[in-house]
Structure formats: structure tokens, C-alpha cells
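Contributing: when you submit paired examples, paste them exactly as shown. First protein:
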Amino acid sequence: MTEEDRATWEDQEVLQLSDALRARQAEYPEVTTRTDVVLLHPAQALLNTSRAAELLVVGRRADPRAAEGRLGPVTHAVLHHVRCPVAVVPHGG
């Protein structure tokens, strides 16, 4: 990936993340969120972040084909290698 492509990708991801968080941040202004967009595998990015985090919150999608309670590969990796408490939150939609 060229540096220009990477910068464009980062800009797009930052905007998408900001849009996704806007309503929750307005609803819960007392909760501090720190956002970071990185070009890494999701599990590795979360594990890197967990080194300095007080709590790591990860989502869990409900896959109707998966066995009840089955976690995806990113959540599984995080739970087995994380360096802080983790909250696994099921997708509400």
C-alpha cells in the first residue's frame, strides 16, 4: 500500500469511526473514549491497545449458524492474550 493510499484509507476510517461513536459519546459524555485507526489485524491492534487500557470492550455478533456461545477469532484471541479486563458485548441489532 502506498503512503498516499494509506493516508486516504486512514482518513476514511477515522471519519467512519467518528460517525459511529458520535451518538454514544453525546449520550455518555462522562465516558472517555480513545480512538485509534491502525493498519493491523484486529486482534493484534486490540492486544497492543490493551497494554495501556483499563477496560477493553469488544463486540460479539450473533451468527445463527454458529453454536451457542461461540466466539469469533478476534474475540477469542483477545480473551486469551489480553492484558486488562475485557467486556464482551453482544450485538444488539
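Second protein:
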Amino acid sequence: MDTVPRELMILVAGPYRSGTGDDPRKLEANVQAMNEVALKLFRAGHLPVTGEALALPLLETAGSTRPEDAAFQEIFHPVAERLLSRCDAVLRIGGPSEGADRMVAQARAQGKAVYTGLTDVPAAR
């Protein structure tokens, strides 16, 4: 078994819409929570990514005006699913989230590591 520390590309998966009522301030708070965890992973030597970081600019460019419109359906979850296929692992954060739970299930199905806390993530350096 390889015990040498190495950099992992880790998808940070947490709630985006869950429990927000689609309130823009609550949506932004959820993105911020994922970004804060991503920063900690980066500082620990890993390459963290979020589906939101890629999907939200695309949604704006596509003219999405609200969650669940046609552009949202076309882009939001498919971006995370494509991104997951390139990642080594998933770090699941936050409370209930159907989308984040789907990422965890897909990661497990693909044989990827799933972490439930920052302390579970192996050292990169």
C-alpha cells in the first residue's frame, strides 16, 4: 500500500439549494462554506474543486434566471458529475443535500475515496 503523501484532486460536495428556499443570500452562504473548506484543502497541498465554481458562471452565461429552469437542468448537476469523473476523491460537507449525496454515491460507485471531514483527508505533504 502506498503511504507516500500525494496531492489529490478533491471535489468538495455540500448543500447548495437545500434548506435555502432559493434565497440568494443563503445560496451564497453555502457556496462560501464550500470555498472555505476548499481553501483549507488547498493549503494542505491538495487541489480542491467545487461544481459550483464551474457551473455558476456557465449558468449566468446561458441566461439562467432561477434554479430549476432549463439552463439549470442542463448545466448544474451535469457539471459536477463530469468533474467528479476527473477527481480522486469527494469531501462531503454540510447538512442535507440530495445533490451532494448523489456525488458521494457516484464516487463510491467509481471506487473513489469519500471523506466526511477534513481530518479524514490524508496529508498531501
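If you have annotations for the second protein, write them as plain sentences, like these:
The mean pLDDT is 95.
The radius of gyration is 15 Å.
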